[in-house]
Amino acid sequence: MNQRFTQAEWNASNFATPKEMEWFxxxxxxxxxxxxxxxxxxxxxxxxxxxxxxxxxxGHGSYPDSVWTKWPSMFRLEKFDAKEWVRIAQDAGMKYIxxxxxxxxxxxxxxxxxxxFKITNTPFKRDYLKELADACHQAGMKFGIxxxxxxxxxxxxxxxxxxxxxxxxxxxxxxxxxxxxxxPGTSHQKYLAYQxxxxxxxxxKYGKVDIFWFDAAYWxxxxxxxxxxxxxxxRMIRKLQPGIIINNxxxxxxxxxxxxxxxxxxxxxxxxxxxxLNGSWAYSPAPIKSASVLIRELLSSASGNGNVLLSWGxxxxxQFDVSxxxxxxxxxxWLKKYGNTYYGTKGGPWIPESxxxxxxxxxxxxxxVYQWKNKKLSLPVIAENKILKASFVNLSExxxxxxxxxxxxxxxxxxxxxxxxxxxxxxxEPVKTNFYLVDKSIFSDPAYGKRIKTCHIKAxxxxxxxxxxxxxxxxxxxxxxFHQDNKGLEFSVSADGEHWENTTKxxxxxISLTTFIAGAAIPGKEIRYIRLRTGSKLQQLGFDIYAK
Length: 548
Fold this sequence. Notes:
Layout: H1 7-12, H2 18-27, E1 29-33, H3 65-68, H4 82-91, E2 96-102, H5 128-139, E3 142-147, E4 165-167, E5 174-176, H6 188-202, E6 211-214, H7 230-240, E7 245-246, E8 272-276, H8 291-303, E9 307-312, H9 322-338, E10 346-347, E11 356-361, E12 364-369, E13 376-380, E14 387-392, E15 401-403, E16 407-411, E17 421-427, E18 450-457, E19 466-482, E20 489-494, E21 500-505, E22 510-512, H10 513-517, E23 525-534, E24 541-547
Helix pairs in contact: 4-5, 4-9, 8-9
C-alpha cells in the first residue's frame, strides 16, 4: 500500500528543512482531537455515518443524508472550553495538538467564507477552530490543522468519474470499464478551486500553523497527487506558513510518514503513528487501553525514532469523558517523572524488539525493557564506543551488568517495573546511530510481512569465512535487512540445507527476495537456511530476516 517514488520525483517535491523538523522530532507526543457531527451518536467521524460515499471510496454508512445533515441544527457545545482542552493536553505530556477542521463529511468546523455548511451556522455560532488555535498559541502549544481532501458532501468533489470505473477487490479498489479511461469527474476542477480557497483560508486566518495534516493517503494508487494538484497546493501552504511541516497524505513524500493504528517501522525519516484510545478515532464508550499499554506504545515509537499522535474526541456537549481524561493524565504523571528518557531523544542505537527498545541523546542511552527473557537482556556492543556506567532510572535496585568484547549483558532486577524497567547507560563517546539504523525501509511495506528473526553474528561465529542460519522450519522469507554496509558479503538460500540457490552479492543493506530475486509474481521464497559468505572475516554482523 505504500507509495514509491523515484529519486527524481523525490527531489522535485517540496520539504521542510531539517532545522524546521527539529521541534517535531523532539516533541514525540501529540494530541489528535477527532471531533465533529458524529459525536451526536457516539460514533466515529464520517465512515459509519454517511450513507453516501463518493468514488473512489465505496460502501455505505448508517445514516441517509436527510438524517445526518440535520445534526448541525442541534450543535451547541454547551461545555466546550478550548483552554481546558489545551490544559489537558499539556498535563498529559503532549507537545502539540492537531485539530480536525474538516473530515470526509465536509462539515467545516471554522467560519469559512466558501460554504454555508459550517459550525458558525449552528446554535453554537462560534468559530471552534479559532478558539482552539488561540488557546494553543496562548499556552505555547504547537498547533496543527487536519484537513481531509475527501469530501463526500461537496457537490463538485469527483477525483474519479464514477461512470468510468468499476469496483475491484484489491487496491486501488477500482479500474476503468472496458474501453474507458479513468479520469476525474467534470466538476472536479471546481472542487479544486474551492479546496485552494479553504486551505488558503486555514493558513491565513488562524495565526501560526505548525502542522498541516492531510488525509487522502496513496493506498495502493487509490489517491494520487494529481487529484489535488498537490505539489502546487503544498508549495502554497509553505509560502503562507513558513516553517510549517506537512504529512505524507497528499500523494507526495511530505515531511514525515504516518503509519496508522500501529507502531511504525524503525527508520531515520521522521514518522508519526496516529493511534486511538479504544479503536475509535472520535469518542466512543468502548473500553480504552490502559495507561501502561499507551506508555509502552509511546516508548516503542520513540525507540523506532517516531512520534505518537493519540486520537480522542469529546462528547456532543463539548466535554471530554472523565475516565478517558484520567488515563491521559496518568500518562502525563509518568512522563513528568521519566520524560527525560523520552523527549528530545533519537531511536536506537539498537533496533527495537517486542521485549525492549532504546533511545539516546549525546552520551546517554535509555533502554526500555518490557520483558526479561531468561532474566537477561543481551545486546551487541556499540561499535567504537564503550559503556562507562549503567543504572536503573525507575528502580532503586543496583543493576548487575557486564560488557564483553562483543556483547552487553544485563541481569533482570528482582522486581521488574510493570511498564518498563528503564536503564540509563553513559557512553565514552557521543552515541552514533548510522551503524545500527537504516534509511527508510522497504520492509515497512506490508507485502514483506514482519521481522521474524534478528541475527547478531559474533566474530568467533564464522567458520571458513561462512555461517549458516537455521530458521528451524520452512518460512516464506521475503528479504534480509542488514544493519551496516557489507562489501564482499554474499548469501544464498536453501530449503533443505543441501541444495543452495540465489547466490547473491550484498550490494545494499536491504535485499528483497520478493522483488529482485524471486521475481515480482512470487511472494518470497520458501526456505529454511540462509548461508552467508565473506572474502574476509567480519568482526561483527547484524541483520533482520523478514517473512510473510
